[in-house]
Amino acid sequence: MSDRLAVRKTYKLYIAGAFPRSESGRSYPVTDGKGRFVANAAHASRKDARDAVTAARKAFPGWAGRTGYNRAQILYRIAEMLEGRRDQFTAEVRHTGASKAQAAAEVDAAIDRWVWYAGWADKITAVAGAANPVAGPYFNFSTPEPTGVVAVIAPDSPLLGLVSVVAPAIVTGNTTVVVASEPAPLTAITLAEVLATSDLPAGVVNILTGHRTELTPWLASHMDVNAIDLTGVPDGDVPALEDKAAENLKRVFRASDDWAGDPGTARMTAFLEVKTVWHPVGV
């Protein structure tokens, strides 16, 4: 029998393409479905949230300026890498109490969902935009553009729900600060490892682990966050967060989705701004 001690993994934050420890030095224990210790996850602070917003803002112009086709290529590459780590993700989903078959099915669905959103990258503009009829010698076009920095409060669905809220925000050119599931954060950091080794630019996705009740109010009130997805927030906390978000007219989105169902386009269009352009005919 081997006397070797296992090397336990240290789960950190993911900010600006790097994996820093929390500025506060705090961590919290993550347990499995039976209450057994699995790992320690970083307990992000208000300062970490500010750093993540700064990274997302810095990455926004470059990511929004890429063509939809190029964003599709990058997101599809991420799906390829998710497929390569299928066994690892399955093992981490099982920590939440899922059976092996249930965990494998969730991982497969999450990979398929990522591919589905990747396919929309060069199509959503045509679907959400329009050429508008006008009574005059003008062309009038409505074209959707990304909102900016989106804070995403992820649901407790450890992988499929996470993918279903992150992918639609970034596929249209937004950058994100994601607060991972508090009880099941491990798949979020493993996803971050995939993103860090793909060709997704640093800062497009930033992932924080820790207590939602501590992080979400700061993101809701942050003046450089343009929109917030409150999907992972309990019903009773929503009104207070909406009040904070109103301070800088943030877009607020919240939907309790059936993650296994058809996702539709609502999550993509929720974080788009429509710009209308007039142009004289013949000029």
Automatic annotation (TrEMBL):
Gene3D superfamilies: Aldehyde Dehydrogenase, Chain A, domain 1. InterPro entries: Ald_DH/histidinol_DH (IPR016161), Ald_DH_N (IPR016162), Aldehyde_DH_dom (IPR015590). Keywords: Oxidoreductase. Residues 34-252 form the Aldehyde dehydrogenase domain. Pfam families: Aldedh. This is Aldehyde dehydrogenase. GO terms for molecular function: oxidoreductase activity. It comes from the Bacteria. Transmembrane segments: none annotated.
